[in-house]
Amino acid sequence: MCNFFSFCGDGYGNYIYSDWEHRKEDLKQNWDSHTKIMTDQGIPNVMQDRWSKYEYNPLTKKFCVDSEIEGHDHAAAEYWVNQLDFSGVVKPLVIKPVRNPLTGRPKEITEKEINLLRKWASVGDSVRASIRASVCDSVCDSVYDSVRASVCDSVCDSVRDSVYDSVRASVCDSVCDSVRDSVCDSVYDSVWAYISSFFDITYHYDFSACVTLWETGFLPVYDDMKWMLLSGKKTRIVYKIKT
């Protein structure tokens, strides 16, 4: 299974891939299949083995030679893809570094962060209310389902999965290992709210308060009847409110 973003090179400085004009035609297609890319671009089957196959993650900048042809300049392929404008590949995708909110010293809390936490707590209450009226089992499921459904309507699965894998590899394990089991579900709420910020699309819920907190070094979590803000690599509680 080829991952987003896949492309092919002929060894002469020519690179081909699936652009947004093709992808938006059918979001269920595997547009990152190297074979499909070459077939769609009119490369005969007997010639496809002469092309090198590459994969690249535009968020982490990780470049991989999936299948190389001797004599091809793979460094040139990596340079080329690093210059590529991804707005022409997946228009709704937002290219930005993956941020870990729990690093360094705890950040100073201000009225701005308190108001953002209250706003996110209000969204959390709405999410939990929707759960009680549905068959979902956890807040995590509802936020996940909300983000997943909206993203799936706007981009193909391989793009969504690539963003999730990037966030998981960069922050999920370290964040979840730093908090108590009782707040893990709300951590995944925050993770999926943050993932939503990598797509310029409309969501059922407003995740902006959580995203802003995350990107400024605060992790909002919910524990029983309390909302809290965690900050710093030692996950210090810098603020809490009862709901």
Overall pLDDT: 85
How are strands sequenced across the largest beta sheet? 2-1-3-4
* Poorly predicted regions: 131-140
| Residue share in β-strands | 5-15%
* Overall radius of gyration: 21 Å
**Helix content bin:** 40-55%
| SSE order | EEHHEEHHHHHHEEE
Question: Major β-sheet, in short?
Answer: 4 strands, antiparallel
Task: Pick out its properties.
15% strand; alpha+beta; four-stranded antiparallel β-sheet; 243 residues
3D structure, described in words:
- The chain is α+β, with helices and mostly antiparallel strands and 243 residues long.
- It has two domains: 6-88, no CATH class; 111-242, no CATH class.
- It has eight helices and seven strands, in the order E-E-H-H-E-E-H-H-H-H-H-H-E-E-E.
- It has helices at 20-23, 34-40, 74-82, 111-132, 139-152, 157-177, 184-196, 208-215; strands at residues 6-9, 15-16, 52-57, 62-67, 219-223, 226-231, 236-242.
- The strands form two sheets. A four-stranded antiparallel sheet has the order 2-1-3-4. Strands 5-6-7 form a three-stranded antiparallel sheet.
